[in-house]
Amino acid sequence: MERNKERSWAEPYKIKMVEPVRMISREEREEAIKEAGYNTFLLKSRDVYIDLLTDSGTSAMSDRQWAGMMMGDEAYAGSKNFYHLEETIQKYYGYDYVVPTHQGRGAEHIISQLLIDEGDFIPGNMYFTTTKLHQELAGGTFVDVIIDEAHDPENEHPFKADVDLIKLENLIKEKGAERIPYVSIATSVNMAGGQPISLSNLKKVRELTNKYEIPIIHDMTRVAENAYFIKQREEGYEDTPVKDIVREICSLTDGATMSAKKDALVNIGGFLALNDEELFRKAQNMVVIYEGLHTYGGMAGRDMEALSIGITESVDEDHIRARVGQVQYLGEKLIDMGVPVVRPIGSHGVFLNAKKILPHLSQDELPAQTLAAELYVDAGIRSMERGVVSAGRDPETGEHNYPELELVRLTIPRRVYTQAHMDVVAESVEAVYYQREDITGLEFDYEPEYLRFFQSRFKKR
């Protein structure tokens, strides 16, 4: 007799090395978060039990990547590891030219300086902090053209990173195509909760930008995760390998910035990839000024080798299924517990809906920052705020930007934690949720000029 019960799955790897972690006492955690100004970025990692601050540079490398590190060619010019990286990017992503950088924001800086003039407008499917800042520093203004569903944490739209084509074309007509240097398209949009863009929508964006001769620059930090969602959710792609979907996504764009510290499973590194040779030559010249020679950028040879191998591993079907599956596991547990989260569950983390968890706190009382601090005190879990603090201030008025989404991100590093760790996280979130009415808010005590969420300090109101 055939059973219909769904079988359990396990991670597609064995653990070869471990790093001990410790849980300090609640009293010590209370003192640690106070000393850190209630900013989880300012905590010492030795005082953190489960670190879900970010998936950037926190993944575990494979035995093949570690072996590749021993093959580092540290020649100042012409490193063989660069040529291997270039070949790998061309094979899996399809871009013609590669400029290595120390991480994604190095690539964002170069492309912004090359393409944006004072007074330009850059439409995109929701902002990302560093991307938007580089665009502003170059004299541009970011304009959000993502679909409205992306701003509703409870909406179950399967592709909440889709572009609203009417918003985009209206902007082009209003400002003029000559004032729009490129359209900024992110795959697996971070600030929306790790939500994917569909290929059908991206094709329509490509058709529209071709009409107005506007290039598309792709933030491909989590492109493999986006491709996995397309395979799961978009009609006609259920039997298509993830690596082929990745290649198709990239083929619809003109260039890309990549923080390799996410999808590509390395602790440092990134690149700018382009198809336009003239633009590539300019970028190649700029990288020498800000990063390093054009055949290493900001990376050592060994890091480029680990990155080449990581790109290959990132599109492996077993890997990506387990990576996204662990995030889904945590998200589904929290939903079953009644905790308000962004739905559907995204690719790289579970995003807690701080507005709904702490409805008695206004955004001026920083509910997401407050909730992140409370989670740390409860069980030593480090998460991060994605709300009014991350949104920064309006450069003209100096007032806070108030995003619709006020979230706490529980970001899952790749190949680092077990399902048991996810159970501990879920139980901690549940415990904080059920004492939510006793939680009081925070206010700024120190605020830096740029990217304030990294270094701001707060105090109890």
TrEMBL record:
Q: Which organism is it from?
A: Fodinibius salicampi
Keywords tagged on the record:
Lyase, Pyridoxal phosphate
Q: Which Gene3D superfamilies match?
A: Aspartate Aminotransferase, domain 1, Type I PLP-dependent aspartate aminotransferase-like (Major domain)
Which NCBIfam families does the protein's record reference? PRK13238.1 (NF009709), tyr_phenol_ly (TIGR02618)
Keyword Transmembrane helix among UniProt keywords: no
| N6-(pyridoxal phosphate)lysine sites (modified residues) | 262
The family note in this entry says: Belongs to the beta-eliminating lyase family.
Write down what this protein is called. Answer: Tyrosine phenol-lyase
* Quaternary structure and interacting proteins, as annotated: Homotetramer.
InterPro entries named among the record's database cross-references: ArAA_b-elim_lyase/Thr_aldolase (IPR001597), Beta-eliminating_lyase (IPR011166), PyrdxlP-dep_Trfase (IPR015424), PyrdxlP-dep_Trfase_major (IPR015421), PyrdxlP-dep_Trfase_small (IPR015422), Tyr_phenol_ly (IPR013441)
Give every Aromatic amino acid beta-eliminating lyase/threonine aldolase domain span: 51-427
The cofactor required is:
pyridoxal 5'-phosphate
Origin: domain of life? Bacteria
EC annotation? Answer: 4.1.99.2
- Taxonomic lineage per UniProt? Bacteria, Pseudomonadati, Balneolota, Balneolia, Balneolales
Catalytic activity reads: L-tyrosine + H2O = phenol + pyruvate + NH4(+)
Q: Name one GO molecular function term.
A: tyrosine phenol-lyase activity
